[in-house]
Amino acid sequence: MLRARTLALLLALAAPAALAQTATTGQKPVNFPGGDRDNGIFASTLLELPISPRGVALGEAMGAVEGDPSSMWYNAAGLARIRTNSLMVTATQRFADTQLGGATITFPTDIGTFAIAGRALNEGTIEQSSNYTIGARCRSYQLGLEGGGALQLATHFMVGGSLFYAQQSLCNQSAASIGVNAGVLLPEFFWDRLTVGGGVRNWGTPATFDSLSARPPLNGYVAAAVDLLRHSNLMQNPSLFRGQPIVADAKFVGQLNMPYRNELYGAAGIEGTVNGVVIGRVGYQFGDDNRKGLSLGAGINVGQFRLEYAFRDRKNAGASFFSYDPIGDEHHVSATLFFGGPQTNQPVVPVIINQPIDTAAINAAVRQAVQRELASLRPLLDSLRNARVEVVRVDSSAMIARYVVPIHFDFDSSVVREGDAATLGQVAEVIRRAYPTALVTIEGFADPAGSRDYNMRLSRRRAEAVKAVMISRFNLPAAQFRTIGYGEQFERQVSPGARRDDPGAEENRRVTFTIDATRHF
Q1: Which of its termini does the chain have fewer beta carbons within 10 Å around, N or C?
Q2: What is the SS3 string spanning 84-118?
Q3: Is the pLDDT of residue 130 over 70?
Q4: Which one has a higher pLDDT value, 264 or 9?
Q5: Cα 90 from Cα 332, distance rounded (Å)
Q6: 388 half-sphere exposure, CB direction, 13 A CA radius
Q7: Cβ atoms of 93 and 331 closer than 8 Å
Q8: In this structure, are residues 339 and 72 in contact, taking their beta carbons and an 8 Å threshold?
Q9: For all residues of the chain together, what is the average pLDDT?
Q10: Is 2 helix (H, G, I), strand (E, B) or coil?
Q11: Who wins on pLDDT, 495 or 284?
Q12: pLDDT-based confidence at 26, cuts 50/70/90?
């Protein structure tokens, strides 16, 4: 009985690892034809299973992806770019009728972003045996809980980490492991487009069943992400989408994983979005075992809600001698809701008051504070008026404003003139003091000389040039700005038809700032 029990426990530890990308056994590499070359036995395999549809669709090359709630499960440093509360729920239908579910919630503050996440793996039931006699079936499952956060220590440096607790239950026995994850990110480190990252995951204590003891699947990784397209205006037609442009973004990601006592393997993926609404993804994971394969995914953003899906077909655990496919398909779905922001997460310190509250004095103090703030901003706003900056309220709530700035360009040029630096500095100060967390869109325009496509590219370069000045000279965060080129769009020309040296043509070669206080970067 003891021998059978020990064998069952050994299989329970090894089987999840074999089917979840870490097929391992013994002290020497397993060498199936075309198959595994992994070493050792891992516990808490739940900690390395792919859980988010975005991660699965990108081949799990998520080590340099930032601003996503699922960063908690891949590289916690990426949480630092999340500026709203978020709740993400994900579920996976896996092979052999097993299921994986998870949830994570983020809390951004002025200091950093913090998160809590949980996972559960239903491994189904196993048969117990005694003296080669099949007995009753019993449950097998794993649970995981993780908490941590991330800080942005500099413009191009973010750190993050978390503590985890993972529990495995087999029949009437349980074993648990605790450990840490740590990661770093260097966002937009080169050319304002390349992000690099790295870290270590699942460094934890052993989980022990009887005399069997194994540690979680320790893994080190390095990763990179490159923005192939960034708010590129693909097409604009007044008869489509109410004249709004079709804007595309695309990102390439790659990652090299270095599992403890296992062979190295890589992953890569491409993600594209259209107008920030429709998402498409494709990824590929390399390796000699069941990791290898193609994955696909899609998603949609509707307001503050995001829905995502990913598919992957795992083939025979990498062992080609199987005559059938015991692994099969995986289907991953998730839903994410974004809400609130740092201002809703400030700690409230309880105060014990032994005296009656002087509400009149409190109200007077609040009025004085508001008046002081307005008084400090008034000279700045007056200076903008003197610089002929026109402020247009785009919506009735005054939460979205367009600042028409007299920054003009020479014909066929995207160079910001030195004489315009003072005006840009005043706009930068308004953004820093009045809109510190608002998303700012810099819009570029061109006069109608030249082809339509060329003018679209030229206007985009002008917007990018102004953004570079706001970042490098006035030290505003790059993530706060996005750029778009409208080319020679007739509806937005100040002097319709004026080009080259025509009177008013310079007014058509300009940029504007649209500040959206309803959205946070």
Answers
A1: N
A2: CEEEEEEEEEEHHHEEEEEEEEEEECCCCEEEEEE
A3: no
A4: 264
A5: 7
A6: 5
A7: yes
A8: no
A9: 79
A10: helix
A11: 284
A12: very low
For residue 468, give every residue at least 6 positions away whose Cβ sits within 8 Å of its Cβ, in sequence order, or none. Answer: none
Residue 159 near residue 77 (C-beta atoms within 8 A): yes
Please give the domain boundaries of the chain with CATH numbers for all domains.
2-322+339-345 (2.40.160), 382-520 (3.30.1330.60)
Residue 254's nearest CA partner among 277, 240, 271, 241 is: 271
Check residue 212 and give its pLDDT: 78
CA distance 232 to 274: 10
Does residue 83 contact residue 161 with C-beta atoms inside 8 Å? no
Q: What is the DSSP string of 371-432?
A: HHHHHHHHHHHHHHHHTT-EEEESSTTSSEEEEEEEEE--TT--PPPGGGHHHHHHHHHHHH
- Distances, alpha carbon 334 to alpha carbons 264, 297, 303, 328, 474, in Å: 29, 11, 16, 20, 40
Confidence class for position 61, pLDDT limits 50, 70, 90: very high
8 A C-beta contact, residue 435 and residue 518: no
Bridge partners, 293 (sequence order): 285
Q: Which of 14-18, 25-29, 444-448 has the highest mean pLDDT?
A: 444-448
Residue at token pair 């040029």: 413
Dihedral, CA of residue 275, residue 467, residue 224 and residue 156, to nearest 10: -130
| 209 token code pair | 């069943």
For residue 22, name the pLDDT band (cuts at 50, 70, 90): very low
